[in-house]
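Researcher: We're teaching a course module on how sequence relates to structure. For the next exercise, students receive a sequence and then see the predicted structure as tokens, so they can try to spot secondary structure elements on their own. Here is the exercise chain.
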Amino acid sequence: MDYATSGVDIDAEGAAIASLIGSLSGSVRKPGTRGAPVPLPGGFGGIIEFGSSRLALATDGVGSKLQLANKLGRYQGVGIDCVAMNVNDLLCVGAEPLAFVDYIAVPETDPETHSVIGGSLAEACRRARITLAGGETATLPGIVTELDLSGTALGWFPAGEAITGENLEAGDVIIGLPSSGVHSNGYTLLRAIIEKSGLSLSDTAPFDTNHLGREIEGASESGATLGEVLLNPTRIYVDPIIDLIDSCRKGTAPCASGDLKAIAHITGGGLSNLLRLHDSLGWHISNPLPIPPEFNWMAETGPVEKLEMHRVFNMGMGMCIAVSAEVAETVENWLTERLSGTRIVGIVCDDGHRVTHADSEIVFEHY
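Model: And here is the predicted structure for the students to work with:
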């Protein structure tokens, strides 16, 4: 099984996005004025000028993970997913998330469902340290058939302090931060795998859910169901990444600001997201993070080839940071104290613009 035959063709999607961008006109805001665009090729968020500061914007939704939530009537984590997918992108340009607005579309209103989602969004904003500044709810019978949720996040950083990847060098070290599970990508393929398995989302998960002490939110003491594992909310990385960036900018610890070379959010496209950070250097993942058991179950049940799994899913690494080699161990230790399971996973290379892996079958040469 693969993503394309399940209904999502990543390559076709990329071509469509390129076509959309090619049709857009330039900004009416001129360089040197508030709101003027700041170029960031391949970046995870859009940046605009704002005096001595820069504002960053990201927009995204929960995607087809919501179809599992709708099926189970379980919305406690979807607000966290929505905020996470946006604020995690802002981190990749070195921006501190400040505020969030949401958009909910439903075929019919349901106060109880909206209350649960509101609580989920509030918890997400607490974890991300941001203000929920507003939102919009649209009732759209005939256009939407089930609840959809998306949003936009606003972030800030001082002018000249963007983390872009442009200063990457061969020999820089990659530090991986563990995911909380599938996060919010690849659910079209995942839903096809569930259908093939014949299992119900309410069945006990057919694998060991105790992955390195990970918590499955909302699971009972008797064990997590398949649905509970697959709806586990996306990890929000504001803590510890913003604390790391702030410390480095202030020169307090654990390294200089210039030693933080690049940050990547491992979402749709998997490890190929790394190729967005530099137009010529490559990446080698020599010591990948442990793969959570749900991914192994998916690969075996599909079956899904290794390369496709690493192209569609995060496979246990939700974010990664590239740092100067001489500070890598110090930064690794600093992060590990705040997020268990973080570790050095690889190195930046100069042998071609591609991602290679400890498993020789896993190679990406384009995003």
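Model: If you want an answer key for the exercise: The chain has eleven helices and twelve strands. The chain has two domains: 1-29+164-367, 31-158.
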